[in-house]
Amino acid sequence: MTINNDIEETYCSFEVCKLLKERGFDIFTEAVWVEYHQDTEYYNKGVDFQKSGILHGRNSFHYSNEYYSIYSSPTQAIAIEWIRVNFNIWIHCASHEVGKWCYHTGKTTAGKISPRICENGEYSLEDFDSPQEATEGALIYILQNLIE
């Protein structure tokens, strides 16, 4: 058997990072999404993912001016933990048929786990091709529908 050690953490998408910011996420990250509002001498209008380690990470906070906006980009694991700690909502991804993934979410209240809270009450309505895609779907669903 060949071992694959060429793996990396999965970072949150730009969409998730914007939603996290709107919900109060403010944690130091080593990666950021930069949204350029207009073309400049150095950058074109659009979105760019930047992972530059500690030096750039010192600027990894939410910032905006007329030229660009910066959004902290946590890993999916940090986003999941932040949601669990602050809103008592958990995420679980599972394979439910060969090559297909779904997610479950639930809320812990007063030490008890509530019934699952997804679009249909049990599982995500959409099938995903990987656990990372299912996690992304769960984060978007929770941030858009379950947290104000």
Molecular structure report:
This protein is an alpha+beta fold. It has 2 domains: 45 residues, no CATH class; 70 residues, no CATH class. The protein is built from 4 helices and 7 strands. The chain has a 4-stranded antiparallel sheet, with helices on one face. A hairpin with a 2-residue loop joins strand 5 and strand 6. Helix 1 runs parallel beside helix 4. The protein is globular, with a radius of gyration of 17 Å. The termini are far apart.
Salient structural properties:
single chain; 148 residues; alpha+beta; 2 domains; four-stranded antiparallel sheet; three-stranded antiparallel sheet; 4 helices; 7 strands; 27% helix; 27% strand
User: Which structural class matches the secondary elements?
Assistant: alpha+beta
Average pLDDT, all residues: 81
Tertiary shape: globular
Number of domains: 2
Strand arrangement in the largest pleated sheet: 2-1-4-3
Approximate strand percentage: 25-35%
Rg (CA only): 17 Å
Largest sheet: 4 strands, antiparallel
Number of strands: 7
**Gap between N and C termini:** 47 Å
Helix content: 25-40%
Instruction: Please count the helical segments.
Output: 4
* Low-confidence runs: 54-60
Query: Could you spell the SSE succession in H and E letters?
Result: HEEHEEHEEEH
